[in-house]
User: Fold this.
Amino acid sequence: MCGPSDCTDAERDAAYEVGRLLAARGAVVLCGGYSGVMAAVAEGARSAGGMVVGVLSRADREGAAPGLSAAIATGMGEARNAVLVASADAVIVIGGSWGTLSELALAMRRGDVPVVQLGGWQVLDEHGEPLPGIRRAETPEEAVRLAGG
Amino acid sequence: MCGPSDCTDAERDAAYEVGRLLAARGAVVLCGGYSGVMAAVAEGARSAGGMVVGVLSRADREGAAPGLSAAIATGMGEARNAVLVASADAVIVIGGSWGTLSELALAMRRGDVPVVQLGGWQVLDEHGEPLPGIRRAETPEEAVRLAGG
Amino acid sequence: MCGPSDCTDAERDAAYEVGRLLAARGAVVLCGGYSGVMAAVAEGARSAGGMVVGVLSRADREGAAPGLSAAIATGMGEARNAVLVASADAVIVIGGSWGTLSELALAMRRGDVPVVQLGGWQVLDEHGEPLPGIRRAETPEEAVRLAGG
Amino acid sequence: MCGPSDCTDAERDAAYEVGRLLAARGAVVLCGGYSGVMAAVAEGARSAGGMVVGVLSRADREGAAPGLSAAIATGMGEARNAVLVASADAVIVIGGSWGTLSELALAMRRGDVPVVQLGGWQVLDEHGEPLPGIRRAETPEEAVRLAGG
Assistant:
């Protein structure tokens, strides 16, 4: 689950619900491990008794979300976005930021996992057309369903 | 300098010219080190006697462009995109691909270097507006000038 | 918990017991996630109902130990040794291999976590003296106790 | 070329000479890019007109040695040791530190490049015997010769 620290209340609520639904399906939730969308998905997953692993950019746990079951302090800076995306069976993106877009792009670059977007930014090709391949969801339920394979 | 393996002839020509102009200004050129836009920028820089360092995703040099002065075989897969972008004083993006977009996004995420785009994909925010901050160039000359600080 | 794929039965048994004892204390166990010592510590931790996160070198889960609660497929090759060590509150090393030694060295390089060695290789300084700072344990119980701070 | 920031004058002199000899043979020198042995090898290589690439642990160039032809600011912390070692055709180790030992171990873990040690620490196996495979040199000339394949 990817998304920005700096998010709207609606994005936070959607992330919480996505976390809850993923945990209810027995999925282990991976996220970036800090505030905003990342903390909300962790909280949602924990509310359903799920496991959440935070893949942190820092080499320590400073600023890590409280609801993580485990934290991987990669110490790699934004290169951790690639680690996070490489480790997932599906990628759900909520909201928009440059870091979040890098995760969306790296997930599409992989080419072998479902990539679902709930709101957020949009990418157009050189002709102004939306790029194909991203599954767009309107609700947390639809996002989790589309991520399910 | 960031750009895709799979590119048009026009993108290849632009990359060659960007490499040549950067080397003529005495800049060390960093690139992803493989084919397409990456090989063209290396060739252009070498044509002007410049130094080109390829930051490779693989742990060996298989498939590396011939014109590299040195290759850093990171063995990190797409996480090398973050390393490449973190090491640059300015980022020029030519053409579009998901890997290239991840580099554009990581460069904007840094927030402390000029990011110049010559053609390629476009990113819109949640309201359908172009994101501010990317410098758009029409020619290799303009790209190199805008990257100059 | 660090150790080689290729290990003796005694090392495997010790690793299983270390995993069991760590899980019994409520610790989340991090390991390299493959066979040998890594698989044994995972199995031991799972036998006590514990959580085990495998920090894999590959970008997929091929060859991952069966007992992992979650796998982080870093795709970074041996650079994942640094990620594993950076993420731990204490490092217990069982057995010897070059990969394992790199983890021991990176843990000592950190300087801010207990590093415990149960058997395995030994490092001498330029005068032939053992390097100070590594806590040597004779049994799994002692290893877990020494790791406890 | 791997070695510690904190080194003796003899190690610094040896590193300078190794750098000079490598550059005289036309080799591109890779090093960790900071002070001590790393700065000395860079200075030696530059004195012979050679190219030196510093693979830095930080995400910026703070503290980088002055003699580098190019710097790769990996921002990966000690994981850059793995990147440095993965990118080399041969690894020469001068002096001892935990970071340096991690590089020696990662180079031996690779198994496909010559690893040469000039002074520094020593590794014994579980029976107290020196591990085979490391080429020990007495002089900079011998180190460069042994690294040559």
